[in-house]
Amino acid sequence: MAEGFASRTALMQAFARPVGEVAGQANVAIEHGLTEREVRDRQRRVGKNLLRRHQSRNAFGILTGQLKSLVIWLLAAAAALSFYVGDRPEGFAIIAVIAINTAIGFFTELRALRSMEALRRIARVQTRVCRDGQVRHVDALDLVPGDIVILEAGDIVTADLRLMEAANLECDESVLTGESVPVAKDIAVLAATTDVAERRNMAFKGTAITQGSGRGIVVGTGMTTELGRISLLVEEAEPETSPLEKRLDQLGHRLIWLTLLLAALTAGAGILRGREIVVMVETSIALAVAAVPEGLPVVATLGLARGMWRMARRHALMVRLSAVETLGATTVVLTDKTGTLTENRMTVAGYLFDDADTTIRTSVGDPGQSFEVDGRPISSSQDERLAWALRIGVLCTNATLPDDAAPADAQATGDPMEQALLQAGREAGMERPSLLDAYSEIEEHAFDPDLKMMATVHDGPDGHFVAVKGAPESVIERCNSVLSRAEHSHLDDAARRTWLERSDQAAKRGFRLLALAMRRTNNRVEDVYADLTLIGVACIADPIRADVPRAIAACRAAGVRVIMLTGDHPETAAEIARQAGLGNGDIKVIEGRELGDFDPATLDEQTMRRILSADVFARVAPEMKLKLATLFQRSGEIVAMTGDGVNDAPALKKADIGIAMGQRGTEVAREAAHMVLRDDAFPTIIAAMREGRIIFDNIRRFVVYLMSCNVSEVLVVGIAVGVGLPAPLLPLQILFLNLVTDIFPAFALGLGEGSDAVMSRPPRPPREPVLDRKRWILITVFGGLITLATLAAFLGALYGLGLDADRAVSVAFTTLALAQLWNVFNARDVDSAMLANDVTRNAFVWGAIILCLGLIAAALWLPGLSGLLRLPSPGADGLVLAALFSFTPLLLGQIALLSLRRGGRMAGLQRR
Predict the structure, then answer these.
(1) Exposure check for the chain: N or C terminus, fewer CB within 10 A?
(2) What CA–CA distances, in Å, run from 222 to 204, 572, 645?
(3) Total of domains in the chain
């Protein structure tokens, strides 16, 4: 920094120093401000008040991301080998496969590309500053440390400020803390260990002034602000590779080694038998093409893309294709509280009045029908205490509500708790403008952070009327009487203790509390806080969204843990967690300060178990959310993280699936997330989770189908060459089969609608591969049956029908193609019925079969194509032979599935 003003380290601790000392460190005269020369000098040294542009995924990055699959690289190697031996049609055909897959993935993900300009836009506003003794409007980009900034209600704070004046000043810091309740500000010096959320003498970049006015000294700009620090965390948070990408990558590695081994063994065996090396190289290419499921990346991409589009119709926008499946594998959801589990809308939940056993509760309804005592409806005219409580809440406020004549986009202003009191008054027919006609306001005593109260004085029908509201402990201390059902009762110390105990119990139930008091007098009011009569205590809540408990119960049924992260007090957080249905009745809460500055990589086992068992993390900072996401991932969980504020962005990016709110979420959070909820509804996560599970089931189904088809191709070529028979299939014929008979039925399998039963089972083990032992057995059985049928038909054509080698190849090709088509029905779940299952009910499957039958006919009889594939017509006898043998794998495959189903049932009975 420039000579003459303090280092960044010194200014970082501004909240722990008196205003005069901070001004001295910043080398600024409080009343005069900086000179233009000083501003230019500091700008040269510290730069603009600008957040660094984050590296976002661009079109080129999306394009190259499509080419990272090992299967794609293996196909590219096969294409290069084809060109090397002079087989150009085959090389171009393989390149076409790669191009199709790349284009599908690229254009689908391009639609989801987002700009990372949100953080930069915050600074693109004007700010009032004092320079050269004059108040000026300057671009926020030009602010420098030491500038004196003037704040008023409605302003966006554009730099980190140490406040030196604060008149009834409150800030909405939800962008940083996630909490919607404005924070009252003052200028008192704080301890050096004070957390960011507790720094009442600071105003932070990106927050908003909700009421009052003030002035502050700039102590941080750009990346040296708290917002900049969080921005840096977003940049540093490395996104996790999705579970599907990991599994397909593992499968790709296995395919590479399998392909190389088969090609080497076959080529070696052929050379030892005296065959030409070039012929064996071509055969090796055929095996490589046969072993690699060309359709796998194409069908996986299309299946994920369709899932992405289906989720979009359900208000869930997926930013990356792989995130579609990841949500289905989720084992833990780390969720923000405000606006995600709650409505982010303060409402009056009830009032505590003088009787210890009586609480008047509120409920939204028609005027006069919004309140009840012990379940019985009551109106404000029936209870004097309720009437005065509503009246005080409407009069003693700075907030406003839009009326019926206001424009559609008009919004309420002021403290959300005051807005809640106004809404309660409106429910009783008490509108502030009309009430002020009867009780005209004489003066206002703004909220005093030290007294924790505010008051308004009115000229009413019976003389002067003082309305007071504030923290229960402060208001109750100033009251000497309480309004009971029939009269004013004396309020002694014992009664005060009882009121405070009742207030504490209400706070433990998750309510925010405001005590309401009044004073009526005919004389001039000297001390507005003297001789008060306590009316009651308003219990205000940010209610749980009505659909959240049911959604969390669905998560539990699906074996998914939901854990709440919040900046709330631990007891308040625990009560909200109970209302939402988290945990198993006994809510385990860990406060952020208990964790300290822990490192997820070095935690001891006991501490790790304690952290991982928590249901709620209270008072958590942005860095803590990021570390918790990392810790759960290290423990083997698949982590989903929900959030809407800037403070959530690093963890959203780090999580396996980051879920941002689309309506109230910040642009920064949406940029960092993998998924955006357009309706902000927690149940949408459940719908998307179901879709993700169905997609993975579909992927497994078509991988079994594809691999069994490819295994049959490998075995048909390998066995024939190994025993000295002519090659029953040529490389280009295999590629045609893989592109036609594999892709269309496999894609149809990927479009299955699934069933609700997928949400009644636990998530897959995080390390479970795409193909487990049972599915490898099915692949081997189905592939073996198709191989035997194809070789039998090939031998029957050569030696039974006496066809020449070319026509016998046509018979083998037709048998294999038809057998692979019928094999799609073997891809049903083992536990499903033979005739009525997800495959037979899938209209796309039947359409794919009809299409593929036409393409097989074209390969045999369409001039040009049949010549390119070297497939002369097999004749009527050859077609009958191929058709008969093609049905054998289907029939035997169904028998195998029935055997596995019976075996599974017997194993289940034995376990019982």
Answers:
(1) C
(2) 11, 35, 18
(3) 4
Q: pTM, whole model, 2 decimals?
A: 0.65
Cβ-based neighbour number of residue 75 at 10 Å = 23
284 within 8 A of 734, measured Cβ to Cβ: no
> Of 147, 155, 336, 644, which is the active-site residue?
336
Q: Is the pLDDT of residue 907 over 50?
A: no
CATH code of the domain covering residue 355: 3.40.1110.10
Q: Which domain does 402 fall in, by range?
A: 347-541
Both 508 and 640 in a single domain? Answer: no
Examine residue 104 and state whether it is found in any structural domain, yes or no: no
Question: Taken in order 399, 403, 409, 410, is the CA torsion positive or negative?
Answer: negative
Q: Report the 10 Å Cβ neighbour count for 175.
A: 23
Q: How high is the pLDDT of residue 60?
A: 75
Q: Which two tokens stand for residue 373?
A: 């005592």
Which residue, among 622, 642, 621, 639, has the nearest Cα to 630 in the 3D structure? 639
Other C-beta atoms lying within 10 Å of the C-beta of residue 726: 13
Domain's final residue, options 171, 187, 220: 220
Evaluate if residue 353 carries a pLDDT over 80.
yes
Q: At a CB cut-off of 8 Å and minimum separation 6, what does 35 contact? A: 131, 132
Determine which of 324-328, 452-456, 550-554, 782-786 has the lowest per-residue pLDDT on average.
324-328
Domain assignment present for residue 528? The answer is yes
Say whether pLDDT at 133 is over 70. yes
Nearest by Cα to 353 from 327, 384, 310, 324: 384
210 and 302 fall within a common domain? no
In this structure, the answer to whether residues 584 and 706 fall within a common structural domain is no
Are residues 768 and 857 located together in one domain of the fold? yes
Does residue 252 come out as left (phi exceeding 0), alpha (psi in the -120 to 50 range) or beta? alpha
d(C-alpha 25, C-alpha 2), whole Å: 12
Give me the CATH number covering residue 722: 1.20.1110.10
- Could you report the per-residue pLDDT of 303-313, keeping only the tens digit for each? 676 777 777 77
First to last CA, the chain: 73
Q: What 3-state class would DSSP assign to 509? A: coil
Do 704 and 612 share a structural domain?
A: no
Mean pLDDT in residue range 884-895? 94
Does the structure show a pLDDT above 50 at 215? yes
Residue 185, in any domain of the structure: yes
Mean pLDDT of the chain: 81
Helix (H, G, I), strand (E, B) or coil at 183: strand
* Same domain (yes/no): 816, 887: yes
**In a shared domain, residues 706 and 670:** no
CATH number at residue 33: 2.70.150.10
Per the annotation, the verdict on 336 as an active-site residue is: yes
Same domain, 591 and 726: no
Q: Which two tokens stand for residue 633?
A: 């991932």
**Which has the closest alpha carbon to 481: 408, 385, 546?**
385
Domain C-terminal end among 541, 563, 596? 541
Give the whole-angstrom CA distance, residue 580 versus residue 836. 39
Would 236 be classed as within a structural domain?
no
Q: Is 518 helix (H, G, I), strand (E, B) or coil?
A: strand
